[in-house]
Amino acid sequence: MIELLDYPFMQRALLAALLVGVAAPAVGIYLVQRRQAIMGDGIGHVALTGVALGFLLNTSPVWTAVLVASLGAVAMELIRWYGKARGDLALAMLFYGGMAGGVLIINLSPNGSNASLTTYLFGSVTTVSDSDVVAIVCLSAFVLAASLGLRRQLFAVCQDEEFARVTGLPVRLLNLLLALTAAVTVTVAMRVVGLLLVSALMVIPVAAAQQATRGFAGTLGLSVLFGVAVTLSGTGASFYADVPPGASIVVLAIALFGAVTALAAPLARRRARRDRELRSGEVLPDGEAAPGTQPDASRGQAARESGAAAPASEAAADAAHAGDAESGTARGRASVAGRYKGGGAHGDRGFRA
Amino acid sequence: MAAPQTVMSLRDATATLGARAVLRGIDLTVDSGEVVALLGANGSGKSTAIRTVIGQVPLTGGELELFGTPFARFRDWRRVGYVPQRSTAAAGVPATVREVVSSGRLSHARLRPLGRADRAAVTRALELVGMADRARDSVNALSGGQHQRVLIARALAGAPDLLIMDEPLAGMDLASQDVLAEALREQVARGTSVLLVLHELGPFAPLIDRAVLLREGLVERVGNPEALHDIACHPHDTHDAEGRAGIGAGLSMSELNPGTRR
Questions:
Q1: Which run of H or of E encompasses B80?
Q2: Cβ contact (<8 Å) for A344 and B133?
Q3: Domain with B211 in it
Q4: Smallest Cα–Cα separation from B250: which of B77, B82, B62, B71?
Q5: pLDDT of A146-165, one tens digit each?
Q6: Is the dihedral of CA B138, B139, B143, B149 positive or negative?
Q7: What distance in Å separates residue B37's CA from the closest CA in chain A?
Q8: What kind of architecture, by CATH, is found in domain A2-201?
Q9: What's the CATH code of the domain at B224?
Q10: From start to end residue, where is composition biased (Low complexity) (chain A) (predicted)?
């Protein structure tokens, strides 16, 4: 594993992969939150025109891509504001236009062909140059400063835009900032995974992380961790197996999603059961009018387990234990009731009843 | 005592949604410390009236003032708390109850990070609606009534002077409604003014100072809640419905009879 660090091109590739692994999910999470996971794809298509423009003008394709992708992202944001019912069609046309414009312009430029677009379409992290690295570091710094520094504000805007406006947040400004950040992320990531797969890196780590988390902060942290894990291991794998890094990164990300989903499903089931029981406990806070004996009994048991035993309750608690063990949920119930008791005096009341 | 300050006033307000005139000239005021309920059938313009007040539906005519400032110049949004008419507090990514409620505090923090006072206000808002023990849970795991309580806590976290709520009781069971009525009572006792849309007065009835009945974009009646509730929700069962309650505009008592309130 260490030998691949001996090659300067691999050092640059891994640095680029690391930065993209952090930045892509950190921005993608807001798009997913706003249910616009597809937006990264659209920006990727538009960025292709920018890349081709770089070839035509004989300048760095990264910077022209940043420019054109930013314009495209702002246009999409404006369409979202003003275009009402047919906004999806306008977005679709922007996708196609970006792609067609790229192919058209690249064939007009003297030293470009469809083949030169391929490295941008599918990524070519091992050909990242020193100047590319400088660009990627600067752009990633901007992306991370915006997406992490303003995470509460962006969270509020993406969670409930109308409410965010009433809190007096500069919602339009934040939306534009998010669009710009997404555009920059796409252009940063295009060298690593390619424009066609860029959205995958913004969406899949988030989708995987939220299988196992309850909160936004947790999802953000875990998705960045997942992002870094798949970009680094995908880049490393491509060094040894001689496969395109973009493709291996995305396949790894999907495999990770599958693994997390498989592992998280039983966890989620247990949590759901616990929540359900917590709720059934809330309906009967006084332990009165209980349709069955189970909720009361489980509280009795919890009280006993948490050391607050009272002799008079022993029989009831034992009965509860037997009943619960039969249904196979003794532990879950006990922990619910224990937690519930911790939250207030209700546990005691139920216990007396 | 000094005459109560007017917290919100709409004068001859008109608004359209698409081509339809939804508000056709409404006068409505809320005084400091007052609880005003908007009643009326579906499509009468209740929600639109509320949404003009928070600037989400532009006025096509008339005037709107918040805390004595014309709407165009009003920037002090930290004084306003808003509870939208929504069935869920969730979005595309999981969020904990506390995270959602914390976003209500951004009216104070703006673009700064949240400080200790902000966190304390969030905790207090969660306690007010009885959701403190669920703070770390995902909002996806909540029932409909709990979602609504979270949205109300989010508005309360900003410690607003004017609380605006669009059908806060929708989809709530009776236990949650009582929790909410208690939270509201506490808030009003601290001097908060409230403007809310209601379909059923329910446990809020004793809290409401003035009920305004809208019909087809106009204020039809203003009066005490008990009399209006019957007219609003059961117009055909109410004997002499037309003869009851006589004021034709949503102005507060203080404006109509200066010196009678408080």
A1: strand B80-83
A2: yes
A3: 6-85+162-256
A4: B62
A5: 999 999 999 999 999 999 99
A6: positive
A7: 20
A8: Orthogonal Bundle (1.10)
A9: 3.40.50.300
A10: 297-328
